[in-house]
Amino acid sequence: MEMTEHTENRPARDLRVKLGNVELKNPVIPASGCFGYGYGMSEYYDIDVLGSISFKGTTLEPRFGNPLPRVAECTAGMINSVGLQNPGIEAVISEELPKMREAFHGPIIANISGFSIEEYRECCRRIDGEKQVEIIELNVSCPNVHGGGMAFGTCATSVADVVKAVKEVTTLPVYVKLSPNVTDIVAIARAAEEAGADGLCVINTLLGMRIDLKTRKPVIANVMGGFSGQAVFPVALRMVWQVSHAVNIPVIGCGGVATADNVLEMMMAGASAVEVGTANLINPWACRDIIDALPAAMEKYGIESLSELGR
Amino acid sequence: MRSNDTTYTILDNSWIGANTKLMLLEGPTEEFTRPGQFVNIAVPGFTLRRPISVCDIEGDTLTIVYDVVGGGTETLANMKAGQKLDILAALGNGFDISRCGEQPVLLAGGVGCPPIYSLAKHMIANDILPTVILGFNSDKRMIMIEQFENLDIPFYVATLDGSYGEKGYVTDVIRTEGLNPDYFYACGPLPMLKAICGQLSIPGQVSLEARMGCGFGACMCCSLETTRGAKRICKEGPVFEKDELIWK
Ligand SMILES: Cc1cc2nc3c(=O)[nH]c(=O)nc-3n(C[C@H](O)[C@H](O)[C@H](O)COP(=O)(O)OP(=O)(O)OC[C@H]3O[C@@H](n4cnc5c(N)ncnc54)[C@H](O)[C@@H]3O)c2cc1C
Ligand SMILES: Cc1cc2nc3c(=O)[nH]c(=O)nc-3n(C[C@H](O)[C@H](O)[C@H](O)COP(=O)(O)O)c2cc1C
Ligand code: FES
Fold first, then answer.
1. Does residue A3 carry a pLDDT above 90?
2. For a substitution probing ligand 1, which of A70, A73, A212 has the most ligand atoms within 8 Å of its CB?
3. Which among B46, B218, B224 is the nearest to A281, CB-wise?
4. Which residues of A touch B2 (CB under 8 A)?
5. How many C-beta atoms surround the C-beta of residue A190 within 10 A?
């Protein structure tokens, strides 16, 4: 009885947000590569509490990925060089998605990777129409095998080419996940928007490396890898701010988010929703804990509805 | 669903070797199903958790034995009884004792000894009599000799420099002692595991290590190419069957 009175005195906190026409019950989305296909994490909690899930980067053919070690630690972060290990789009559709749908009933974000424009296009064509897949997220941090190995995401025209090619084969909203390893992220964001992107995810990992003092050799077999985790939060936040002020499409903030306060800060910088990556690897309950902590954080900062933040 | 009670209290943290400590922890142990499973420890001041095998479980206490090799294990070594640790428990597949043959031999080197100890105890509790052979570089690096002796099972030690037990490798002991095992379990440094798999014609199970991102299957940082496809050392492993392994 006392409990009810107590909660009745509080204004209801509305966690709902929108990514274009896609409504999420809260803004918290596990980021690609840090949550598999979701169902494995239901050992830890009911993943239906999540706003959405971005599944592991998927390519046309199965990929084993890079040699071990694939991971190095750094202060408040980590470096990974998984190399897009995934079973390929067909197995994702026939084996992973059905299991994912049993554990999660909300909108799914399909994270698609490619080493050629044709590969992106073919993956998107096949994922289009799959139940619950409501957004395609293009990981453009992969090297373009036809472009001298330069990552698609580092060049405005290649990003635009990928978006245009993909938009021809799908009616799903297409989000481009931008690489921070560029001189001018705003130029790339604008190129994606002009090419027809429906939204952006900002950011993917920063390129980094570590050397083992004992062996004097790089820790990671592939030498370099993607730097992520709490350490990158200020960089990600800055880029979300810059990009969301330059485009008129929704932005998903990603990079270093680990707390409910981080979520609010990302949304104040212009994000409509937030992806959480590395935090899940350190605390398997991270996303659930953030969602649970959001109402109190909103109350503390006088926020009644999350959609009043962001854009 | 797994419990999110991940708080463990240190009851003891003492040196048991030149560079090795034994930590006794109190906390939930119900989720462990097999010997050879590991825990993933959040070490204050470090981002990634540190995976350590379980050496023993008694009621709600858990023993781990670890070498001090870098910053994380150094911090662990400096912790005191009464302090608390955030630990993810019961990770990985562990050893399967259902296919141990008639005469299983357990082979361990260095900090491969702790999981082999828990395996030996588990086998004894299940009326299986294993033979244990431990290998070390020298007597200065030996650990857990007394604990294994107290198990009261056939037990041998080999040292590379002959400073204790038999001189040579664990596989040499099988030959010199005329042992006739029909199944093996092994945990230790990679060169040792490779030699064991190469030299023993019997089937067996091997526990592997890898640098881990999560330790519970989410990141694919620990993948291994096996004869049965890609597997995660932290999830489908760390224990693999000998015939799954591809040695390069
Ligand atoms: C399944 C499993 C079980 C293990 N069981 C034991 C055990 O019972 N006793 C024991 O002493 N050691 C064990 N190890 C090794 C132990 O995890 C490392 O020695 C420890 O992580 C080193 O941390 P550090 O910070 O002291 O060293 P640093 O070298 O500073 O660590 C840097 C990073 O590399 C990782 N790393 C370094 N060496 C290893 C290694 N050999 N294996 C995996 N990750 C490593 C660390 O976790 C950390 O992320 C096990 C490893 C695995 C994978
Ligand atoms: C182990 C690991 C694997 C990742 N795999 C992918 C991937 O397949 N596709 C992708 O777009 N991003 C991938 N990322 C990047 C994350 O989705 C995220 O953008 C990045 O880690 C920054 O967020 P964080 O600091 O919250 O981790 C991966 C990150 C990590 C740590
Ligand atoms: S360490 Fe993350 S999947 Fe094994």
1. no
2. A73
3. B218
4. 43-44
5. 17
Nearest CB to A85; choose among B49, B216, B220? B220
Taking 60 as the threshold, does the pLDDT of residue A7 lie above it?
no
In this predicted complex, what is the ipTM? 0.95
Q: Which chain A residue shows the shortest CA-CA distance from B210?
A: A69
The amino acid occupying position A278 is T
Token pair for B177: 């002692």
Give catalytic residues of A, as residue numbers: 142
CA of A35 to the centre of ligand 2 (A): 10
* pLDDT at residue B95 is higher than 70: yes
pLDDT tens for A89-148 read: 999 999 999 999 999 999 999 999 999 999 999 999 999 999 999 999 999 998 777 777
Question: What CATH number corresponds to the domain at position B38?
Answer: 2.40.30.10
Dump strand ranges (E) for chain A.
Answer: 17-19, 22-24, 28-30, 53-54, 71-74, 77-80, 108-113, 133-139, 174-178, 199-202, 206-208, 211-212, 217-218, 225-228, 251-254, 273-276
Q: Of B34, B62, B91, which marks where a domain is finished?
A: B91
User: Could you tell me where the DSSP H helices lie in chain A?
Assistant: 2-9, 89-91, 97-103, 117-127, 156-167, 185-194, 233-244, 260-268, 278-282, 286-300
Query: Helix (H, G, I), strand (E, B), or coil: what is residue B24?
Result: strand
**Residue A49 tokens, joined:** 């509490």
For residue B2, is it within any domain?
no
Q: Ligand 2 within 6 A of A228 CB?
A: yes
pLDDT tens profile B235-248:
999 999 999 999 98
Distance from CA of B33 to the nearest CA of A (A): 15
pLDDT digits (tens, 9 = 90+) for A130-146: 999 999 999 999 877 77
Distance CA A31, CA A28 (A): 9
The residue whose CA is least distant from atom 28 of ligand 1 is B70
Over residues A282-295, mean pLDDT: 98
Tokens of B54: 């379980």
- Domain identity same for B113 and B217: yes
Which DSSP string corresponds to B87-137?
EEEEES----GGG--SSEEEEEEGGGHHHHHHHHHHHHHTT---EEEEEES
CATH topology of domain A2-308: TIM Barrel (3.20.20)
Residue type at position A102? E
Q: Which residues of A touch B221 (CB under 8 A)?
A: 69-71, 80, 82
Residues of A within 8 A of B219 (CB-CB) are 33-34, 71, 80, 82, 281
**Pocket flag, ligand 3, residue B218 (CB < 6 Å):** yes
My answer on whether B120 and B84 are in the same domain is no
Whether omega for the bond prior to residue B203 falls within 30 degrees of 0, making it cis, is no
